[in-house]
Write a structure and sequence with these properties.
By secondary structure, this protein is α+β, with helices and mostly antiparallel strands. Strands 1, 2, 5, 6 and 10 form a 5-stranded antiparallel sheet that branches. A hairpin with a 5-residue loop joins β5 and β6. It is rod-shaped and about 110 Å long. The chain is about 35% helix and about 35% strand. α2 (about 65-80) packs across α3.
């Protein structure tokens, strides 16, 4: 009887250890397969700011579709081109657009410069290039001149577990 009881106890103890091992193994694989989703939201409620032209009779560059048309198109292009799973971006950034004398967008700069922001800058530049970039150029005393425009954009990244 003692041998039988000892045999039953040993069987249950080995069975319990192997079941415990399987549970721990499953926990490790679940932790290594975490899934999440990131969503980048934009706030472009700030008005376009024009860098002052140094002349008596200045008219500033204007987007052909107006300021709201420009912001709408930029917003749609940014939402389409920002890669939600590669980076997270939070804070206010300045988009500085350089408009030449013919009314073409010739350059774009993102400020402040942030370490490891190469992917973000590339995505934003692609979104800006995809826009209709025709502007009515700025004039100074009737002569067309180069100009700069700044737009403050607030980014927020929300992370969701799946």
């Amino acid at each position: 009887m003692k041998k039988f009881l000892l045999l039953v106890m040993m069987t249950f103890s080995f069975g319990f250890v192997s079941a415990q091992y399987l549970v721990e193994d499953n926990d490790i694989t679940e932790n290594s397969k975490e899934f999440g989703r990131a969503d980048i939201s934009l706030d472009m409620n700030n008005p376009l700011e024009f860098y002052r032209l140094k002349c008596a009779n200045a008219t500033y560059a204007q987007y052909i579709g107006g300021e709201n048309g420009f912001k709408d198109k930029l917003f749609k292009n940014l939402k389409a081109s920002l890669s939600n799973n590669l980076y997270s971006v939070n804070g206010t950034f300045d988009f500085i657009f350089y408009i030449d004398k013919e009314g073409n967008l010739k350059d774009f700069v993102l400020k402040p410069e942030v370490p490891n922001s190469n992917l973000l800058q590339t995505d934003i530049k692609n979104a800006v290039k995809a826009m209709n970039q025709k502007w009515m150029p700025a004039t100074c005393d009737g002569a067309k001149v180069d100009s700069k425009i700044r737009l403050k954009v607030n980014f927020r990244t929300d992370l969701f577990d799946m």
